[in-house]
Amino acid sequence: MSYFPSQDDSEGSSPLPRSNEDKTTEDNMEISKTQAIIMSQLLDIASDTFSNHGCNDFKLDATPENIQFIKNMEIADGEDAEEFELCLTDNRKEFYSGDDRLMRYCHDLLEEGIAQSGKEQS
Q: Distance between CA 106 and CA 100 in Å, rounded?
């Protein structure tokens, strides 16, 4: 699967990397390699900064896509898929995750795509 173009950024953009477990029907958003690198750098800094906050709750809608994304994050972080549990809000329409962990996971996905791009250019 190609994450980024094999030519320079002026040739176009490419889809964000997606985990193999994330089998949703939504379309991939396309970004350039330069955009991915900048976002990855920002997420790296933000994740470190946010990890020092007292509360790292980030509320997400309890959609199948969001739940699968967080489950993939948990698995990538070494959690057992069979023991995956959501921290649902009282109305059960939303759930919480850690903002710093989400930023770190998104950073890792971008880095994966950037690395894949380098392999394709070789």
A: 10
Please give the full DSSP string across 25-83, using - where no structure is assigned. Answer: SSPPPEE-HHHHHHHHHHHHHHHHHHTTSS--EEEEE--HHHHHHHHHHHHHTT--GGG
- Give the closest residue to 77 by CA, choosing from 38, 114, 105: 105
pLDDT for position 27: 63
Enumerate the domain spans of the chain. 56-122
Are the beta carbons of 17 and 113 closer than 8 angstroms? yes
Contact residues for 114 (Cβ-Cβ < 8 A; gap 6+): 3, 4, 33, 36, 37, 40
Which pLDDT band, with edges at 50, 70 and 90, does 29 fall under?
confident
Residue with tokens 């997606």: 18
> Which one-letter DSSP state was computed for residue 6?
S
Total residues found in the chain within this entry: 122
User: Phi and psi for 107 in degrees, rounded to 5?
Assistant: -60, -45
